[in-house]
Task: inverse folding
């Protein structure tokens, strides 16, 4: 079955950097868009950044200029480079992949999440 495994989370001081990775396996279709989402305690899950199979990107206003999303299609791997981290970036970060099986069927898959904690 499809599995998305995130890594790279951890504890970092404000102003620091982290790089998240998400490795997809068990893919039987083709991966369209991929993205990173995050959920802080007591808050709803929110979009951080997305990237299409062609490399077009979209970012939440709160992370523009600080975060960079990228992907390696040959390795089915998604990345998120996070710089100038702020305490408000603290959250569980989730990877998402939209897998296309046919013209009519595209299914979303989620990773288990990785914790990012930014201390002030």
Result:
């Amino acid at each position: 079955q499809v599995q998305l495994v995130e890594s790279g989370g951890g504890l970092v001081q404000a102003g620091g950097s982290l790089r998240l990775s998400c490795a997809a396996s068990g893919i039987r279709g083709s991966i369209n868009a991929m993205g990173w989402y995050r959920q802080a305690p007591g808050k709803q899950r929110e979009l951080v950044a997305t990237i299409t199979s062609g490399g077009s990107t979209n970012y939440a206003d709160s992370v523009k200029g600080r975060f960079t999303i990228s992907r390696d299609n040959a390795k089915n791997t998604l990345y998120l480079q996070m710089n100038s981290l702020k305490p408000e970036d603290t959250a569980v970060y989730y990877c998402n992949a939209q897998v296309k099986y046919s013209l009519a069927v595209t299914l979303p898959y989620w990773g288990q999440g990785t914790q990012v904690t930014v201390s002030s």
User: Anything to note?
Assistant: The radius of gyration is 14 Å. The chain has a mean pLDDT of 96. The CA atoms of residues 9 and 85 lie 12 Å apart. The chain has no helices and eleven strands.
